[in-house]
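dumping this here before i forget
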Amino acid sequence: MSDSNGNASSDQNPSARRIYAKELGRLRERTGMSLMQLGTETRYEQSYLHRLEKGERLGSSDVPRVLDKFYDTGDLLADLWELAKREKTQGQYEGFMDVEAEARNMQQFVAGVIPGLLQTERYAASLLSTDMTASLDEVARRVRERMARQARLFGGTNLLEYRGVIHEAALRSALKDPDAWTEQLERLIAAAGMRHITLHVMPFDAGPHIMLGGSLTMLWLNSGRNIGYLEGNVSGQLIEDAEEAEELRLAYDQFRDFALSPEESLALLRTTLEDHQTCSSQPRT
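structure:
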């Protein structure tokens, strides 16, 4: 079969990703299970499984391993996933989002700025607008995507257990818009009061540290597997090797030991907000 331009139909030359997605749906339907039932059995969100079957996400390697065991299909899905991974053209950041969508627990330090999952819309827009190569439409799209990801923290269901370390430098880099900065500080204070969120502030007087100049995110999946994500100014790298991920986890734990306690951090956030509001209310000379 050919399309209107005379090219071969994609059905005759499907991608490994498409075959993988189709096989996920076929195996589930063979069992007679709904997505909700499969999610209950495997501890994956129904919406997430739906996106895998539609080919919208590839997911991490844990998914085919769990489902191969569940369906008793040997390494069929794991092999298809490997083929799909090799051919995919998505960047490491998109790969990180696949893993983030599955994670049940996240620990994170982002150098110099407020972590993305805690940013307000105006803070995110201000930060992303510093990319001079991005059009206004591109910046708006990135902001929407960042806000959508925050459903894992503030959406009300399937909440992510989150522990973040914010460097004091990020708290001293106020936005030019006083109201927008007030909003961002209030967001952090509100987040720090939520049971599934723990925030630490790394004070200036902690001195040089192992994370200087970079960012690190540690993610734990339902399987118990630990994955790291190292991010610099222009690139990111997923660390899926178990030994390497464990080394990063230990480094992160040692780094966090130098941060303020959650109670001390909340007090500093409140003081930062009070100081900002006092300065903002004073008339300029």
